[in-house]
Structure formats: C-alpha cells, structure tokens
Amino acid sequence: MMEKGYHKILVAIDGSSQSYQALQEAVELAEHHQALLKIVYVLNDKLANIPVQVNSKVIYQTVQEHSDHVIEEVQTRMADQKVTYEILRLTGTPKKELVNFSKENDIDLLLIGSTGLDALDRFILGSTTQYVVNHATCNLIVVK
Fold first, then answer.
1. Is 9 in contact with 26 (CB distance < 8 Å)?
2. Is 57 exposed, middle or buried (CB count within 10 Å of its CB: 0-12, 13-18, 19+)?
3. What is the pLDDT of residue 144?
4. I need a labelling partner for 113 at 20 to 30 A (CA). Which of 12, 19, 48, 73 fits?
C-alpha cells in the first residue's frame, strides 16, 4: 500500500499543552513529508460580545497579549526546526476559522489538541475539536 503524501499541514495552536504536543507532531510529519506547515492561532472574537458593563478593551488587551505570548512561544519552539512553516493569526470563532482555513488553503492534514484552553467554549458551544472532526474535509490527527 502506498503511503499518502501530505503537502500542506495545518496545526491549531491555543497555548494549551495539547496544542504544543500537536505542534511537535506536526513538525515531525512536515519534516517526513517535506510539507509546508501552517501554524494557526485563532483570536476568539466572541469576546467582542461581552456585556457593556465589562471593560471589553481591557479584556481584548488580555486576549491579544495571550495570543502574542503563544505566537512568541511557537517562534521559540520553531527556531531550530528544519521545516518550511508559516505562523498565522486569524480572528473569529476558532472552530469555524480552522475548518474554513483548511478548506480554502487545500490543507491535506490538520492536527489539533484533544482539549484546549477555551473551557467556556466547551461548556456552552461544544468542543472546538469535536466541531473540527465533524466538519473538516481533510484528514485529521487529534493529539492527546
């Protein structure tokens, strides 16, 4: 049986330990397949809908600072890697952005952590991972 070749690999990053494990797995696969690795962080825009009593500018700065921290951590982890990669920051609902991005960019393989940092999302809307598993059109690896 011939091994499937991957040319474009997407890994979702949110700062959770599972997302960093997914990143490591994605790097190894990208190296093995000589694939382009797209590392994606989605800045969750649902915080824009917080009630007006809350100072949403401060919350946004906190979310922005978190995304900056995660991107810096990814850059540090990627410094010595021998793969071609891009780090992208998207804004929107993470589960929908990941599925849409994977379709629009002809992603062959998507890696995602089994659980992320977004407990509110899991509690209210259901797991980002579950949504991606059900809606993505490419192959997936869920990293625990």
1. yes
2. exposed
3. 82
4. 48
Q: Residue 13 — φ and ψ, nearest 5°? A: -125, 135
**Rama region for 34: left / alpha / beta (φ>0; ψ in -120 to 50; rest):** left
| Encoded tokens for 140 | 């997936």
Q: How many Cβ atoms are within 10 Å of 54's Cβ, its own excluded?
A: 10
- What pLDDT was estimated at residue 60? 53
Q: Contact at 8 Å (CB) between 111 and 126?
A: no
SS (H, E, C) the chain: CCCCCCCEEEEEECCCHHHHHHHHHHHHHHHHHCCEEEEEEEEEHHHHHCCCCCCHHHHHHHHHHHHHHHHHHHHHHHCCCCCCEEEEEEEECHHHHHHHHHHHCCCCEEEEECCCCCHHHHHHCCCHHHHHHHHCCCEEEEEC
Q: Which residue has the higher pLDDT, 28 or 45?
A: 28
